[in-house]
Structure formats: structure tokens, C-alpha cells
What we know:
mainly alpha
Amino acid sequence: MGYGTNAQIWLAMDGGEVDGNCTGWTSIQIQRRQWIDQKKINVLFQYSTRKHPTLQNVPTIYDFDLTPDQRRAIEFLTTADALTRPVIAAKEIPAERAAAMREAFMQTMKDPEFLQYTKQIDMDINPLTWQDAEKIVDGILSASPETVALARKITE
């Protein structure tokens, strides 16, 4: 609290003003790689529904003792993280065009040249199928008012 951006928080961490931050691992890998290489940080847990491929020994929030209500609220808060960079189109596009775009996207995610480039720039590629993305959105939209209220309380 009190810092406007991750960059400001990270500068405060470098200066010893702040002890930690909840942020995206990919951001750390790209913007503060030296922290990882020099073992300057400890990843305490992953606030995510699934483990990052390079953090398999780090527990997720779900490895802790949660009540069913807490689990639902945290799922509400974390499932959207899997939709980091959604590719969207107008609802009115023809079904065959949507299918072609989905297929082209998934082919790109498997393309060796593309994957080599993403490795060079330390970009994580963990694509979801459109069906999985749709399930996530449906789950968020169907969350009960009680779950949303508890999620708000957790983030305060």
C-alpha cells in the first residue's frame, strides 16, 4: 500500500523499504531477473490455481488449510489470472471465422520459431483452449454474492 506501481514497489524492495510484494512471476523473470539469478528473493507461495512450470516446489495458496468458503472466494480471485492476455473478438463474428482464429492461435502457440523467440525474451507460454477460457469466465460470472463478498474482504 502506498506505492502506485510494481516498479515503485521493486525500487522500495531494492532499497530495503518494503519486504515483499504479490506480483506476477513472469514480470519478475523479465524485469528483475537478477533477483532470481542472485537468489535475492524467496517465493513464499503461488497465488494461483496451478503451479508455474519453474516453481513446481513452491506451494500454491490451495496447499494451505482453507475452509470451503475461503476456497471458493480465492478461486474467484485467482482463476482470472489464467486469462492474462485474452484474445477477443466481437460476439457477432461468424462461427467459422471464430473457429479459424482459434485454430490459428493454437497453432501459433506450438510453432517452433515462435516458441524459440518467446524463450529468448523469457516469455511464458501457457495457452488455454477457448473452452477452458470460457469455463473460467462462466465461473466468475456465476459466483454467488457471498463468494464475491468474501473475496472483497480477503483483498482489503
